[in-house]
Design goal:
This is Bifunctional protein GlmU. InterPro entries: Bifunctiontional_GlmU_arc-type, GlmU-like, GMPPB_C, NTP_transferase_dom, Nucleotide-diphossugar_trans, Trimer_LpxA-like_sf. It comes from Methanoregula boonei (strain DSM 21154 / JCM 14090 / 6A8). The chain is α/β, with parallel strands linked by helices. The chain folds into two domains: 213 residues, Spore Coat Polysaccharide Biosynthesis Protein SpsA, Chain A; 174 residues, Hexapeptide repeat proteins (UDP N-Acetylglucosamine Acyltransferase, domain 1), CATH 2.160.10. The chain is 15% helix and 33% strand. It has seven helices and 41 strands. The strands form ten sheets. A nine-stranded parallel sheet has the order 14-17-20-23-26-29-34-37-40, covered by helices on one side. Strand 4, helix 2 and strand 5 form a beta-alpha-beta unit. Helix 1 crosses helix 4. The termini are far apart.
């Protein structure tokens, strides 16, 4: 069976993190989120993939190539204009030779769940449950069949949702050929699903491990979940006087200096410098060539590659882009005084602890204070002693 991975979208809700990369290439546990999905599908027995690419496709192609280093075969189907999910799937039509899986590239699934999708009679939809179904396509299921699908309902009829994973036969392309533009001006896959539902022909496959990554703070939840399965590994240098508690993975060329205390699960990439006397707490991922320095504390955070957080910093419950530099003493707050849920960019994160979203190549002067829920665009620059709160666009500057 083939697997079509839809990976052409920009991921506007993930801004500013997608200003320089496609959403599916954002790192979770130091791998692009799409790589986790592809490896899970491979482990479920699929070796032939079609990647539908568009925005930032060069990064996807450079990372996966022809698939050889991952033990798979990859073909690419360009979607030149992002005209909706139906258009994205139609882009793969000439490369599909029989029954296939189709999956959104911005989610996390286990190989066991993908195996269930493979075994399900096509056509079928993977389903999951959530405590906020109104953000998704809400599904009613009876006797293993999908009875209805309603997108982003204000009054959801159930807590069961469309998980964005499907088992199809090539017949789906005949249905897609008849789809017309929706009110949003897009060609929607859900319109084709509606035809299958009306024919009582769409099965439902409950998924146990599905995790959607729609907003930057969802990266923290996915990162924490994937790190739970981390095995300790040391390919770098750990000096005397370093304390490692729980599963910690250290990449090749990385040096952990004396006095550093790391609580797993934690993964540290290649060629990093950590410490001396750094404190890294659980559910933290640190990208390649990063520096976490003296008396710096990092907790439940995704730090992307080539970022420097070198002296007397605190970063909690945050997503930090690549190539950033934190001046000495700069700190990110992560808790409101009333312990209420944090909003970021006007959106409820549903997290009582959440710090900031920081784009790529952001530079902070010394002793900056970043308030909870701040969203900072790429290439922003902040003068020493700046108080940073709210949202800032790309190239913003406080002098």
């Amino acid at each position: 069976m083939q697997c079509v991975v839809l990976a052409a979208g920009e991921g506007k809700r993930m801004r500013p993190l997608t200003a320089r990369r496609p959403k599916v290439m954002l790192p979770v546990a130091n791998r692009p989120m799409m790589e986790h999905l592809v490896l899970a599908a491979r482990d479920a027995g699929i070796t032939e993939f079609v990647f539908v690419v568009g925005y930032g496709e060069r990064e996807v192609r450079n990372h996966f190539g022809n698939g050889e280093r991952f033990g798979i075969q990859v073909a690419y189907a360009p979607q030149r204009q992002q005209s909706g999910t139906a258009d994205a799937l139609r882009s793969a039509q000439d490369l599909v030779t029989g029954p296939f899986l189709a999956m959104n590239g911005d989610m996390i699934l286990s190989s066991a769940d993908i195996a269930r999708m493979i075994d399900a009679p096509a056509p079928a939809m993977g389903t999951s449950t959530t405590d906020h179904p109104g953000d998704f396509g809400v599904v009613l299921v009876e006797d293993g069949r999908v009875l209805s699908l309603e997108e982003k309902s204000k009054h959801p009829k159930s807590n069961i949702i469309n998980a964005g994973a499907y088992s199809f036969t090539p017949e789906i392309f005949e249905l897609l050929a008849g789809i017309r533009l929706s009110e949003r001006g897009e060609l929607e896959l859900t319109d084709a699903l509606g035809i299958l539902i009306a024919r009582h022909d769409l099965g439902a496959v409950p998924l146990s491990t599905w995790r959607d990554i729609g907003y930057p703070w969802d990266l923290l939840d996915a990162n924490a979940a994937l790190l739970l399965g981390l095995n300790s590994q040391n390919e770098g240098i750990v000096e005397e006087g370093v304390h490692l508690l729980g599963p910690v993975a250290v990449g090749e060329g990385t040096v952990i200096k004396s006095g550093t205390y790391i609580e797993g699960p934690c993964i540290i990439g290649k060629n990093c410098r950590i410490g001396p006397h750094a404190y890294i707490r659980g559910a933290t991922s640190i990208g390649d060539e990063s520096h976490i320095g003296h008396c710096t504390e990092i907790k439940n955070t995704v730090v992307m590659a080539r970022t420097k957080i070198p002296h007397f910093n605190y970063i909690g419950d945050s997503v930090i882009g690549s190539g950033c530099n934190f001046g000495a003493g700069t700190k990110i707050a992560n808790l409101r005084h009333d312990h209420g849920p944090v909003k970021a960019g006007g959106k409820d994160t549903r997290h009582t602890k959440f710090g900031a979203v920081v784009g790529d190549n952001v530079h902070f002067g010394i002793n900056c204070s970043v308030n909870v829920g701040s969203v900072i665009g790429s290439n922003a620059q902040f003068a020493p002693n700046s108080v940073i709160e709210g949202s800032f666009g790309e190239d913003a500057a406080i002098r």
